[in-house]
């Protein structure tokens, strides 16, 4: 089933034009890992591939355009965007719908939340979230290596995501950058869920 109004070849052509070469490779890598993880968890591989492919479709837009989409079109809570690096996620969901013709709500939601995540993510949302962090085309082979190993197991998804959050929080602290309150709350809720199991 096709999840966009464009053919896959047209999606790839459009993405390649709108992204930097490295970001395009990252998108391909995220799509590959999304498909692989969807297969492992018994979810729709084609759907996961498209979500992974389009997760950064607005990433290379100028910040002014991203802010316009987030503030003036989507009217989102500014507290989520204490770092401009998170603007592209909801903007990409918007562009995936408007320019690529994606109607599937789960794809759009997974794109929307792939940067900071959210509490009670679905398995599909978790797959796109972590695939973005661990893909091997552009991500450091050693970075999140432990998470990649965990992802090979059926019950490793949440544990891999916790490792990702730890690395993100550590990186933000080391660079003297603010941490979104949602990030802390999501991390705590994941820790609680793992400690219960």
Shape: globular
Number of helices: 10
CATH class: Mainly Alpha
- The ordered string of helix (H) and strand (E) elements is HHHHHHHHHH
Low-confidence stretches: none
> What is the average per-residue confidence, as pLDDT, rounded to a whole number?
92
- The tally of beta strands, per DSSP, is 0
Task: Give the fraction of residues assigned to helices.
Answer: 55-70%
CATH fold call: Hypothetical protein af1432
Strand share of the residues?
Answer: under 5%
Class of secondary structure makeup: mainly alpha
What does the largest sheet look like?
Answer: none
Radius of gyration: 16 Å
- Termini separation: 36 Å
CATH superfamily: Hypothetical protein af1432
CATH architecture: Orthogonal Bundle
Q: Give the total of domains.
A: 1
Tell me about this structure:
This protein has a single domain (8-196), classed as Hypothetical protein af1432. It contains ten helices and no strands. The chain has helices spanning 8-18, 21-40, 45-54, 63-73, 88-98, 105-112, 123-134, 145-151, 157-174, 181-196. The longest helix is centred in the first third of the chain and has 20 residues, at 21-40.
Give structural attributes.
mainly alpha, Hypothetical protein af1432
Brief characterization of the structure:
By secondary structure, this protein is mainly alpha-helical.
What is the secondary structure topology, with strand pairs?
Blueprint: H1 8-18, H2 21-40, H3 45-54, H4 63-73, H5 88-98, H6 105-112, H7 123-134, H8 145-151, H9 157-174, H10 181-196
